[in-house]
Amino acid sequence: MEISEKQFKNSKAYYKEQKMLEQLNQLYNQVPGGSCTGCAKCCTEAVQAFYVEFLNIHNFLQRENLLEAYEKKVETHYFSELYKRQDCPFLKEDKSCAIYPVRPLVCRMFGHSSYEEHEHSYQGIREMNEEVDQYFFDTYHVHIPEDVKHHKIEYCRDFIPEKVLKTEKRHDLIDRLFQMDTHFLMEEYIPEDAINLSITNWFVYLQYSEAEASKKRVDEFLKNVEK
Asked: Which residues contact 117 (CB under 8 A, 6 or more apart)?
């Protein structure tokens, strides 16, 4: 898994030619706003994003002359994620979001799911983290720190949506983003397994192959975790 310089250049040109920014904004505008306290408790991890959303974020950072600074922050976050609890790399000190105008769909929809849906989603994340922890123990005889393994974004009861976004509509919006990403797959601008990755993964895979990134990540983990 990696995205070559040529693939990335071609995908950005395709994004512009196909007017995907307009499509994205039309999709995002279907998510109702709401009243938020700005506590940023939902911004305590790197979130998932579709490739088309990553391109939108990358373009925004370039326009704002923020790309170099945030590339470094994202890379630091990615390579220390297994052993150190961290907020989203785009969360600023004043608890505002550096990419708020272009934040991905998952951020826009936070607060619209039911408590039961939220807990079900967390259970899947917890099981995945347990599997990763077991792998590291079996392979390297070390455990992932408890605060990393069991980190949980709590259900938000403070956010008051202007209008509840029903489950069916949320799934429809996700499906539409998936369909947008399939165009990049068909054009061979991204690999087949590159769907809805973490924002940090997208940035890192521009600089490293998956094998290189994984090795560096494991090396950093083993240097910093207690044995």
From this structure: 167
Q: Are 50 and 196 in contact (CB under 8 A)?
A: yes
Percent of the chain with pLDDT over 90: 81
Cβ pair 59, 67 in contact under 8 A: no
If you average pLDDT over every residue of the chain, what do you get? 93
**Residue 140's Cα: distance from chain center in Å?**
27
Show contacts of 82-85: CB within 8 Å, 24+ apart: 82/132, 82/136, 82/144, 82/148, 82/217, 82/218, 82/220, 82/221, 82/225, 83/144, 83/145, 83/148, 83/220, 83/221, 83/224, 83/225, 84/145, 84/148, 84/224, 85/44, 85/145, 85/147, 85/148, 85/151
- What pLDDT digit, counting tens, does each position of 42-86 carry? 999 999 999 999 999 999 999 999 999 999 999 999 999 999 999
CA 34, CA 164: separation in Å to the nearest integer? 9
141-183 tens-digit pLDDT: 999 999 999 999 999 888 888 888 889 999 999 999 999 999 9
